[in-house]
UniProtKB/TrEMBL annotation, chains A, B:
Lineage, broadest ranks: Bacteria, Bacillati, Actinomycetota, Actinomycetes, Streptosporangiales
Region of interest: Disordered: 1-21
Species per Swiss-Prot/TrEMBL record: Actinocorallia aurantiaca
Name of the protein this chain belongs to: Cob(I)yrinic acid a,c-diamide adenosyltransferase
Pfam families attached to this UniProt entry: CobA_CobO_BtuR (PF02572)
CDD domains: CobA_ACA
Residues in coiled coil: none
Membrane-spanning intervals of the chain: none
Alphabetical list of InterPro entries matching this protein: CblAdoTrfase_CobA (IPR003724), P-loop_NTPase (IPR027417)
Length: 204, 204
């Protein structure tokens, strides 16, 4: 993928450098594979730039653990040990948010999701991370557990230079409208259609 | 992304375990972002499973270096030092394939691409890697530098249990036909449309 050239230059009074350094709101949506994988790949890329990475997985299951968590947390420890790359935090709703006292309140995912978003708002206000991966965050919005307008307002007005990636199907129209970059992953062909189950290393 | 369940079970005489362990040919195509990023994310996931990873970038530029190369090569060294994960090799056409005597023959990308494919064929025959990332390999096929039928035949008949991911736009119809899993990344919105140039950590 070559370094892209803009197809046109806007008259927004910004220099190329200012425009280049604009923090991005990115959305990976659609029914295909690769939404989260590409987001975690960007986190790996950001780590390499020395960025402070925060991953927030809005998944219901505590057991579910993707290989990227192991690797990115390992990279975070590598940073602590050798100074390479940047720090990494990985938080998961299903196991109970690590900052929360209520551990995995199976009963009330809506409250868990709202709590996760409240923490992310605090971190955005404080400029805690350089890159936020809000994995599967489209669902709590779609289900009304988190208010879409609040999300859009907060993200649009976040201070400093914080990149945000939101992944998941059924992205809210307001989120798409607000995003700088939207990619839709479309399933053209998938082995599960042929009766194949997910497999280690490929699906997790 | 929860562990998927098959939508139907084929009568192919295979057990679920056999079917599950089928090596996959995956293609990431389309005009959107995330094709390579998701492939490198899968490589990170595979590394975590202890897989032997081979990345072959069919890019013309020797200078171009994505953050994932630094990180995956670092993970490869970590494997050598501590036994964590698996080994990683990263080869790039633009800088002259590392196994080749001709260093970056700027003049003849077609010959370079053919040489890269010849090496990959040897490795597939030998079962050298568990996961091959053939990054931007759609282009040498599209340009006729590498024969599409040869690619399809070789990949369809590769021995053992070797996963292959091919990335790039304009994937050849025969490749799509042969692939187990095809994902199309579609650009819905991109900041370069607004005159923004690519930026560090996001584009590379």
């Amino acid at each position: 993928m070559p370094q892209g050239q803009p197809s046109n230059v806007p008259e927004d009074g910004l220099t190329t450098r200012q425009r280049r350094n604009r923090p991005l709101l990115m959305v990976h949506t659609g029914d295909g594979k690769g939404k989260s994988t590409a987001a975690f790949g960007l986190a790996m890329r950001g780590w390499n730039q020395g960025w402070n990475i925060g991953v927030f997985q809005f998944v219901k299951s505590a057991k579910w653990r993707v290989g990227e968590q192991t690797v990115l947390e390992r990279l975070g420890r590598l940073h602590a040990e050798t100074g390479e790359g940047g720090p990494v935090e990985w938080h998961k709703m299903g196991s109970g948010w690590s900052w929360s006292r209520t551990r995995g309140s199976e009963a009330d995912h809506a409250a868990d999701a709202a709590e996760g978003w409240a923490e992310i708002k605090r971190r955005l206000a404080a400029g805690a991370h350089d890159l936020y991966v809000l994995d599967e965050f489209t669902y709590p919005i779609a289900w009304g557990w988190v208010d879409a307008e609040d999300v859009v307002e907060t993200l649009a007005n976040r201070p400093g230079h914080q990149h945000v990636i939101v992944t998941g199907r059924r992205a809210h129209p307001r989120l798409l409208e607000t995003a700088d970059l939207v990619t839709e992953m479309t399933k053209v062909k998938h082995p599960m259609d042929d009766g194949q189950k997910g497999q280690r290393g490929i699906e997790w």
